[in-house]
Structures are given as structure tokens and as C-alpha cells.
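ping. complex inputs:
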Amino acid sequence: MEILLSFLVGALMAVGVYLMLRPHLIQFLIGFLVLGNAANLLIFTAGRLGSQFPPLVQPDGAVLEPYANPLPQALILTAIVIGFGLAAFGIVLFYRAQQALGTLNAEAILEAPEPAPAPSPVDEVREEVAQ
Amino acid sequence: MSWLLVLPLLIPLTTGILCLVLPGRTAQRVLGLAGALGLLAAGLALLAQVQRQGIQAVQIGNWPAPFGITFVADHLSALMVLVTGVVAVAVALFALAENDQAREGLGYYALGHLLLFGVNGAFLTGDLFNLYVWFEVLLLSSFVLMILGGSKAQLAGGVKYFAVSLLSSILFLVAVGLLYGATGALNMADLALRVERVHPGLLTALSMLFLVAFGLKAAVFPFFFWLPASYPAPPAMISALFAGLLTKVGVYALIRVFTLLFTHDTGFTHSLILWVAGFTLLLGVLMALAQGELRRLLSFQLVSHIGYMLMGLGILTPLALAGSVFYALNHMIVIAALFLLAGLLQRMQGTTVLVRMGGLYGPYPWLAVLFLLPAFSLAGLPPFSGFWAKYTLVAAGLQAGQYGIVAVALLVGLLTLLSMGLVFAEVFWKKAPGEVRAAPGGLGGLALPVGLLAVLTLGIGLWAEPLLSLSQAAARELLEPSGYIQAVLGVSR
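pong. complex structure:
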């Protein structure tokens, strides 16, 4: 089972990275979501898939042995919540970027925003200094 | 439990929440400054406590160490928290004088304090997954701060910053998951005990994942491209906060994991860090020399000088690590001062494009002094704090026989001086292209925080012994992790 899930994680990672490398930012965001799920599955698998019993303590104090490892689930829950927050912010950010910049193409955004040094009287000043 | 350890978290959190709830702008401004001052006081108290009683640890909710969440303060963490407080106060003072009503209305103070909350959490946590969560806390606040106000440049910079941060977060998460799979632990002290049982090759592979994840945050070669593309976009009261604090969190994380966890094969990992340091130093300063816009230039200087901090980590002797810590503390102060000053200059001249600035030396000679103090400190001239930081690193490098990196470090110091000198010539000496305008609303308030930071770097330089011995104490603790493990787990190795 672990082997199978490892391959699944690998496949998801590959898909996620491919999407993140695409020029369109929405594809990038979907790639991030896929990659995030791959990371979560990876933590799940790294915690070992053993028993399916819940890690609960009986009223008499006895523990169901062997019990499933609860820690990866807690970690994944946290990571899912954080990933959700990041994705929600990302969607709004890209929406605003589309409005302000008129494009969501990564290449176009890379080239756009440098504050272009407007033609200035500096050359005249330099000439004066030289004289 | 020691309240002092959680105060640097509770103060910014409370301030942030109150700033969100209280609608009045005046109330938020007062709270913003009060919270920063409180944080500074808490940092001082924490450092005094660590100095008196050694490494402090607190288990949240009284869950014993490897299971619950631990907060630890050794000298390194306490010093970082303290200087975070210093930067926070300076930025708060600047923001008060800047009086940017639009951004204050959008929640600048609340977001700023939540950012400080995340930064301090990252410095103080003793748990690797918890560190991931703190990174996300500070990242989310910084995302919003980056685009606060929503100008075009900010959105374009914000998109790049967001994209790179997502990538490094995922890498960090994957690295934590794999390390957990290999060791079965997440508490850093517990991990330090368990990594010995992991196959060294696997451990090296894992350490590389951490190096890339934290290297992206710290903006080291070859992952620094995003920083100069995004940091110049927001106004000075935001970019100074970023420049002073955020990359240092990445540096702190690198120092932490590469002294506590990954010391099994220093011949490979730490030599690689030295190469990374060298290229960061050289490329950063060379790119800075090619810039024609002040804030982009400062961003490249910021990148370049991250290399110094890695240099000490790569050499990994007590003196070198002390140099790294001292450099990080000094650099937080100096670069924040320079970014704030860039904001002040933009206010005066309406631009930060160097060719369009000029002529400030005549009417404002004191402003030139204000620029030269942090600029000389950045370049490492005596008697400023930057000199002692660089001197320590170079001395450590010579002792360890790492002549290559020492040569690079000295050359970069020289090039930094050249770069800062060029800025001085362009902004202050050159004849003004237009007429020199007085800043609207007076300069005193804006110059005050820059002056405080400049006096601080001069003061540390003239009286370097206390901070240097604290840095050395931090280095000793980092190189001898048994004290850290003892403080967290209550057992020795």
C-alpha cells in the first residue's frame, strides 16, 4: 500500500510541478493545489499505514492495539487549512492582478512593472559637471 | 511556565487583534507604537532571563516535550526577538510620521503586528512542524502587506512574491514530512537525538530539501531573483519591515537546522553552504552596482549581505558562528535604516531613480550624515557595528584556513563601499536635476527612526563587547546542542 501511494505522490508532484511551470497564473494556482495534496498524501504515507483502528482510549483505560498513528492526520489537517487559506488569498490576488495589470500571463507580468526611468535632464547636468 | 517566553508572541497578537477591532485611526496608531515598545521590552526581559538562567523552554498546555508544542529561547532566539523589537519600534515611529491614511485605514498596524507575531513565533518555536505554521502566519500577513493599497507595482511584485513563497512552503512541508517519516519525530531536540540513526545519505538528501526551502526564504544564490523584484514595490514602512525581518527568519532557520540536525557530513553540506555564501555575496553586490533605482539597489545589497551570515554557518567554528549571529543582528538594524531612509528620500524628491535625484547635500547636510552612518556600517567600516561583524567573520575564516571565502568577503566589502559611495554622489553631491523640494509635512518625524537606528549601529560599534559576547554565547550553545536538548527534553544525550 505504501509503495502504491508513493507512486501516486510522485505522479501528483509531477503534475503539480508541470502546471506550476505553465505561463498562466490560474494554471500555476491549480498546480499549487495538486502539489499541496501530494505533500499531504506524502505526510500521510510517511506516517506508515498500519492499523485502521482509531487511536481511542476505552472507558476502562485500555487502548485498542495496534492503533492508527494520529499525528500525520493532525499535521495534514493543519496543512489543509493553511493550503486553503493560501489558495483563497491567491485567487483574490490573481483576480486583482488581472484587473490592475490586464493580464495573468506570467511572462507579461515579469516584463511589465519596472519603474521606467523617464528621460531626465541628468545628461545635461553631467555635461555641466564635466565642464 | 515562564510567561516571558510567550510574551513576545502574546503582545503582537493582542495588539494585532485590538487594531482590527478598534475602528479609530488614532487608537490604532497609539496601539501600533505601544505594541512595538512592549515587544522591545519583552525582548529585553527575555534576553536578561536567558542570560541569567540559561536556555528557557516552555511546554504549551503542559504536554511533555516530544508530544506537545515547545517554545525554546536560547541566546540566538532571544537576540533575534530583541532586535525584531528594535526594528518594530523604528518602523512604527516611521509609520506614525508617514501618516499614510489610506494604508492605515486598510489595517496596516494590525497586519504589521500579526507579521511580528509570526516572526517571533518562528524564532521561538522548538518544533519543526510548528515552524512551518509560523512561516505561514508571517507569510500570509506579508502577502497582504505587500499588496496593501493595491498599486500596480505592488500587485506585480506581490504575484511574484506569492508564487515563490508558495513553492518554498510546499518544499518545506515535504521536507518536514519526509524527515518525520525517517525519524518519527518533529520536536527539534528530539530530532537531534534521532537523526544519528538515519542513513547518512538519506539525511544529506533531506538536508538539501531544507537548504532549498529555507534558501528561498532567505533569498540566497541561486534563489534570490524574487526579492529585488518584489521588495521595492511597497512603501518604506512596509519594505523596511520586510527587509529587516523576513529574510533573517530564513537565515535563522538555516542556522538552526544546520547546527542542530544536519551536522553528520559537514564536509559536504557546510562546504556547499560556503559556496552558496560566496556566490550570494558576489552576485548580489555586482547586481547592486548595476542598479539605477535606490530601493532595487538596496534590495540587491540585502541579498548580498545574507551571504555573510551563511559564511559563518559554512565555516562552523565558534568564532564564525558568533560572527554570523552578530552580522544578522547588525544587518537587521542597518538595512531597516537604509530602507526607511529610501522612503524619506522618495518623500523629498518624489522619486528613487538615482539619475533624477540630487543636490541634497547643500540644504540638508545632516541628512547626508544620516545616510552615511548606516551606509558605512553596511560596508563594514570602523567604528560601526558592521565592522566588528565583518572583522569577526574574516578572523574566523583566516583561522579556519578558508582563504577563498575571506577574499570574497573583503572584496564584497569594498564593492559595497563603492556602491554606497555612488549612491552618495548621486543623491547628495550631484547637482539637483530639478529644484530641491522640502518634504511636505516636515522631515523630523521621518528622520527620527532612521537617526535612532543609525545611533544604535554607531553605539554597538563603539561598545561592541556586550553584543559580541552575547553572540559568542549563542554560538557556543549552537555548537554544543546538549544544553538545548537538556532544556527541552530534560535528558542529556
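Chain A is about 65% helix and 0% strand.
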